[in-house]
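README: folding subset

This subset contains proteins for which both the sequence and a predicted structure token string are available. Records are stored as plain text. Below is the entry for CubicO group peptidase, beta-lactamase class C family (584 residues), shown exactly as it appears on disk.
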Amino acid sequence: MSSTSSIGERLKYQRKSKGYSQEELAQRTNVTVRTIQRIEGEEVSPHLNTVKLLAAALEVEVSDLLPLQDPKEETLKKKWLLLMHATPLLGIFLPLFNVLVPLFLWIHKREDNPIYNEHGIKVVNFQITTLLFAVLSFISLLTIEKWGFFIFISVVPICVGIMIFNIIYVLQKDKCFYPFSIPFLRLKKRKALGLILLIGLLVISSCSQPRPETIERLDGSLITKDSITHKIHQLMADAEIYGMAISIFNDNQPVYQRVFGYKDYPNKEVLTDSTNIYGASFSKAVFGILVMKLVEDGVIDLDTPLESYLPQRIYEYAPQTRWHDDFSDLKEDSLYPKITARMCLDHTTGFKNYRWFEDDQKLKVNWEPGTKFGYSGEGLIYLQVVLEKLTGKGLEQLAQEHIFQPLGMENSAYEWKDRFNKGFALGHNEKGESLKKDKDNEPRGAGTLETTAEDYTKFLSAVLNQRLISKASYDQIFSPHIRIRSKKQFDEGDSTITDKYDNINLGYGLGWGYFETAYGKAVFKEGHGSGFVHHSVLFPESGKGIMIMTNFERGNSIFKELLEVTLQDVYTPWEWENYIPYNK
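--- output ---
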């Protein structure tokens, strides 16, 4: 292949040389067939993570796929040379930086152009020599009368003068001159002395200042975990939110898991990762995976009307719960028999969120099922009741068998368990007052999940790694089944049409919301109720994501900024979600 070949040509060449079709290559990676087609067709410039995945699957180096840049551009050379010679001045204010910064630049650029290698070696040698002179001058100050003082105060001005001279010299002539330098590093790698000294210097530096742990964001930029923690403390204090759990994912794994504040703020009882937290509509995300598992097992089909599975009409069954399986209101309804499992999961049943939002508080279908998005807990409850009648098992038993037990989610359930009394979080209203804990909910797939930050992190990890169900099922979940064009998800604006979110193709999958970004598709699920406000968003193609759980009513007022700071997620439709920042 020519060194000037494009990445599309290189990928096609390497794929064909290995005998892979586009489909076979896609199966060996997490990269979709469509993405491979677009790369080979020169339609997109792929993210570095995508190139790494493809290179690993093809068993080649990343450099075999990425076209080389020309390192000899004059402006580029001047910039790097200037950095090599000027950055050691940082050592005046930050000890050891006069060596570490040019050393880093030399290691990073030495193979791009011989001039970088030559100048880098001379700069590093001079700066190490300067450190030795500084130590010797300090010793002379303590041991040599009169002259020791003059030696001590002369070292820094002389060295700084040499550095300034070389900054000017390199800009004018592309040359440098550092007298007195000891050749710890040589152009010909024959001596080990320089390497030993450098290793020792790095060890000393690492002991005195540990490297901060970082998290990679969507755009490839890094942020330290300490910075995230500091930002969370600041946001919580400013917005007066006193309880939160957060997990951040890189490479399909949680890389940051922290809890902050209190499970009971008035009594200052501390929140932990094993504290029981009401999951609210996080319930729906779990229920969506459960339904797809039952679809795989042949219990139900996504597009068969649910009414057809039962030996009698749904409204003819005597209710077994206080309210949620009472469908007597549907006796005169001619539209509900058209409802399928897919419509329940993508919120197109025509049911309102709950029956008590109707003027007469009676359940009814408000439009042709399957034609329009309308967020509905009732739709998922209808699907749940049909599944319970088909399997002879309650929701709690099904969830334990297929989700909670396989994932080791020992502190999760769709109903209250006595063991949860050992430690549970209370919700808090806008004033920060704790609310009474509701413990008598009957299991409902739309909203009775009890879980912990630790358990729900396990669940999201399983989703990112496509456990529990097949890739084909996840592809169904992570696809838009209905486009959303409403101004807001709820309340005023839920019936107002807008094109504001067309650029992200906002829609709904199966149990999860859906939108698209420059870094691939994203799926999200929120939760809100009883003083608890949660949000999660996953980016399956990059293996990144975040989970935020709060037990304060105004918790969502910091979600927008948290998403932007932690992941550079500027795509989540925060206005549609009504995540209005606390300072707006």
